[in-house]
């Protein structure tokens, strides 16, 4: 990774001075284009050994760029969790909107590198973490977030010299103290081996590592200015991809061959009598109450996603669940059109922002699956966008599960006839009429398209960490008990792990 | 407060059943008006003794209303702080946008009531807390957030009976456990006395307490449905106040008499030579570095607001400050036009959302003072709106100071001639040209209006908790040193308290 960086790289003061004004002007002009277009954002990741000048680079870029659209995203001590949430939450939280630039000290590379150095993570664990990162970065790039990854390189002797100066100064920087345990010979040996895996796995065509020799300040800053300029130019060029206003794809009519529908396999005739229902629902509610109050639940969390046909009974099922939960510890998020802050970021951002702290419950009434359901069927996203969403969603749910959250997903299924009966009933009861919109009638016409989308969704996103539960919802009582029982089963299984 | 509630209040099942459908329909219709208008939001505060049915009321309203625009806002255990931030932060955080309804269990009344019951707060402290709340609620109401405050009343014997049932049940609710210490005879005596102060001070014309007899479920729910209906009707009626799109006031030309300008008292000729400057700025930076790294700072926090004429040097001053701070612990917020999520809430929301946890620093490049500066001068808000903003801002800063944050505010002042020189310089340097916009020239014409606004702002919001510092910024070096020295002085004074 560092071969060419080891050569001598210097820039004398006069050369830097003559080069700087033009570089600044060019950088600003292209930054203004970025701001005006609001099509993409840029994350600049700055890595390198202590003493290589990460802070100095930051300050330089603050001098050169329009600071009003520039943010520094830093994260706490390298091996600590943020606010009881999954590791990736804090990175999502700080993500700047399209048009802006975020500079990161302490990116998602930090934790695995730190754990690798300390020997908490073996080689294969580290490789797999790097592969997770590569997929994460691919998603960001495809969703409008460009990445510029800079590695400041110092010759080993120079790095040693600077580290010593830092740790012996009167004002020892806290960051150096925190990382001190990483500076033993063994730790540095492991880190140096890890660098190869980082370069091999995460240097992609869209986000290669830029190794910048950092021995000479002027050379370092001029180089970074140039690669930044190049990156911004590529991002703002005509034809650079943007997730905003993609070319809509025409809604595809399913082909003439009958396609398999997973929903057709459900036995919708299953029913529960009122007495049995009341007894069973009370039982399942008490199981859920008990599980979410158990002390072990404080280290877990529960994320529920409800999807289903219109009028399949999502809201009334959620109401039964609501009664089993402590109102201080859960929140329901009905998912409708995104706000402008949400539209200015990758689509998963609006869900990440609602991921609760451990010990809490989040219920999504419609969810991130909108991407591969309504957005796909209505042609609001390109086939490329919804096509890759399956993997992106699996990664997202995998990160939640990894952090100890129980992820439960329901599709509530009814027949077309039953839906018609419920629509008619909604029309006849004044206080239910609002639940029926012209859109519901339009959606009905697309029933076969939805069946195909649901089938593909279930096939591709039913993972061991987050399996789908298909719910026969023709009979509301049967559906409610099945949902609550599934939640109770999953919770109890998780807590007894 | 509870006189009439002590009478017998019942509603038989049949009467409830015949009343319910009409009530639901009316509630929904007026909720849809609220949603369509997006002019105001509603917070429903539900208080009352354990066992009075707060949870049941919540569930009932979830049945009756469109849940997609309904949120429950709950807060953790009553006497704990949220995420290391000031007490009010978590209430601001959950504030629903205009058009929506939030239901609160555990509102801002909880903490003072809890502390009063435990004797941690004396009578006068409690009265003063209630007065703070009254002003806070007045601000919310004026800024588009209506309040419906419901107190569920139970006869003392009935309350005792229900509490016993709750605490002895097999599934003891965690909330009851947490509040158990509040149920001693002495504690309840104090709470009962506190009720009078609550009623006297916080039952205002715009947000009176609604005492609802809660002995009979049907009567309780029907009553709440009716008062809610009435509230929603008043909120959506023509002529109901809304902070959105207020009637703009014409920009007032200052009257012919020369008005006093606080800025005219400044000696703008103060200068620093380069050598002195470099020595002094380094000294002040090291004081700030030391103070923000001190262990005592972890329980405090630093909030900086920068205001000043265009080209007065805010950004370059912030840059010098930035170098003194650990990038992991501060963030700069440039304040420009609000996003739609911000515009759908009271104006202070966009600043509360960025209030950092204790031990952190937030720097606002322009701030909440925009309300009484640019928004006033440009006629974007009514005189009523900016007129009451002084008090609202003092309360806001008071809450920050109360929570241990150091609040430092700067006005950077230059002369009109110096501004013209800097504009000209900006025009001549390519990479500075972007800093000059047509708006800057327009603002220049309004110089006297800004002088009047600044003078009134400083007079009315320079408090002991958060005094203004006027900075003679004609000489950039002098200004930078004065700013950094002020920050260092304030920090050191706070840490030695």
User: In percent, how helical is the residue content of chain A?
Assistant: 40-55%
Round the Cα radius of gyration of chain A to an integer and report it: 26 Å
| Biggest chain-to-chain interface with counts | A-B, 53 and 53 residues
Q: Report the mean per-residue pLDDT of chain A as an integer.
A: 88
- Using the coordinates shown, work out and report the CATH topology of the largest domain in chain A: Rossmann fold
Give the total of domains of chain A: 2
Q: What structural class results from the helix and strand content of chain A?
A: alpha/beta
Biggest β-sheet strands, sense, barrel of chain A: 5 strands, parallel
Can you write the helix and strand succession of chain A as a string?
HEHEHEHHEHHHEHHEHEHHEHHEHHHEH
Residue runs with pLDDT of under 50 for 5 or more positions of chain A = 174-178
Distance between the termini of chain A: 42 Å
The share of residues in extended strands of chain A comes to 5-15%
Task: Give the quaternary arrangement of the chains.
Answer: homodimer
> What's the CATH H-level superfamily name of the largest domain in chain A?
P-loop containing nucleotide triphosphate hydrolases
User: What is the class of the largest domain in chain A in the CATH system?
Assistant: Alpha Beta
**Shape type of chain A:** elongated
Strand order of the largest sheet of chain A: 2-3-1-4-5
> Helical element count of chain A?
19
Number of strands of chain A: 10
Name given to the CATH architecture of the largest domain in chain A = 3-Layer(aba) Sandwich
